[in-house]
Amino acid sequence: MVKTYLKIIVCFLICMQISSCQMINEKTPEWHAEMCHPANRYRVQMVKDEIFTLEGIRAGMPYGSSSGKWGDSGGMWTEQHGTPIGADLTYYAGYDNVFYRLKIDFPVERMKDLVRRNYAMREAKNKIIEEYKHDGDRDLLADVNADYNSYHGMSSLIFGFAPKGMVVVWVNYGLTVIEIGRYQAKVITDPKELESAKNKHLATWRFTPEYFDELAKKLYNPDANCDLWDMYRLRYNWKPVFTSENPNFRLFKINTEYYNGEKDQMMRPWLLENKMRDRALPNVFQFFWETGIGEKFEGRIFFNQNEIFRHFKGLSGDNEIQVKIAKDNRSLEVLLNSQKLEVDSIRIYPNSKKDFNDSYK
């Protein structure tokens, strides 16, 4: 009889665990946490971490150090679950030789909306695609059963660590990356908290106090500051405007990478509306167009950081970054409000293999 009761209890607990896992997978958002930095010399190490979720499910950061580039760690860790609404992080920045603590709250209503968004990745055959759809949308559910998905949900929450305790957080949807905000970590000065953080850091990396001090001297950079990455966050009202002397010109897609770590893409039909928006400044344009059957092109523009920030400085109101493509598709020029804008590089690739719903047939 006792064995029977034990079996019943064990089966009940197993069922509860399976049910709990199913609830996590089916009813709560799933994503990865990323830690990035502007450059390897600004690498930080996580000491203590907790990401708070609306559902009360504990989430955390990757083990070890930050990596990659600004806005992209280049890797992902174990899946996390829940709607992220804040974080409590302690980390060590060797170039500052400082332990920082970041305790922040995210805007709850905005996060509830962002985790339900699915941003367009590619066109759907014979269907009008929108910039994004929310979970549960009828078209989105149908899209799941297609050969490929046209939309991509939230894949990661990215934390970017810049000098002097500057931390930027983004939500990543693949080809779309949206900044949540810029936050300021505080230097840990309380003796007990500082000792606890340092001891945990030493234990994690198996450093002796002597080696820690030796490494701190090597890594320390007295000139490190966050001015550049704060500058990257400057936003202006502007839109890209693409034109051509060729009367058969059709523009299909613009992918933009911004200096502040954000990304987005514009496709038809909202590309044709091309609304003025509050945006950071672009680092790279990638775009696709056609001028007839067999005349498919891909272009890329790599902006010059000094030039574009200098030209935008002090601008207000609505602005246009204008790309004028030559009639023969062999060249183009870039202008800001009809004034020439110097860029680092322009590339045009003929014979693009991309095919769009409105392609010439």
H and E order? HEEEEEHEEHEEEEEHHHEEEHEEEHEEEE
Alpha-beta content class: alpha+beta
The helix count comes to 8
Number of strands: 22
How many structurally independent domains? 3
| Rg measurement, Å | 24 Å
Strand order of the largest sheet: 3-1-9-10-11
Strand residue percentage? 35-45%
Uncertain runs with pLDDT below 50, 5 residues or more?
1-25
Residues in helix, %: 10-25%
* Largest sheet: number of strands, sense, barrel closure: 5 strands, mixed
The outline comes out as globular
Give the distance, in angstroms, between the N- and C-terminal Cα atoms: 76 Å
Q: Average the pLDDT over all residues and give the rounded result.
A: 92
Keywords: Signal
InterPro entries: DUF2931 (IPR021326)
Protein name: DUF2931 family protein
Signal peptide: 1-23
Please explain how this structure is put together.
- By secondary structure, this protein is an alpha+beta fold.
- It folds into three domains: 29-113 and 154-204, no CATH class; 116-153, no CATH class; 233-350, Immunoglobulin-like, CATH 2.60.40.
- Helices cover 23% and strands 38% of the residues.
- The protein has eight helices and 22 strands.
- It has helices at residues 2-27, 108-114, 138-144, 191-205, 209-219, 227-231, 270-273, 305-312, and strands at 30-36, 44-53, 80-81, 84-93, 98-105, 117-120, 132-134, 151-153, 156-161, 166-172, 177-184, 186-187, 236-244, 250-258, 263-267, 277-279, 282-292, 295-303, 319-325, 332-336, 339-340, 343-350.
- Strands 3-1-9-10-11 form a five-stranded mixed β-sheet, with no helix packed on it. A five-stranded mixed β-sheet has the order 16-13-19-20-21, with no helix packed on it. It has a five-stranded antiparallel β-sheet with strand order 15-14-17-18-22.
- Strand 4 (84-93) and strand 5 form a beta hairpin.
- It is globular and about 70 Å long.
- This is DUF2931 family protein.
- Pfam families: DUF2931.
- It comes from Flavobacterium humidisoli.
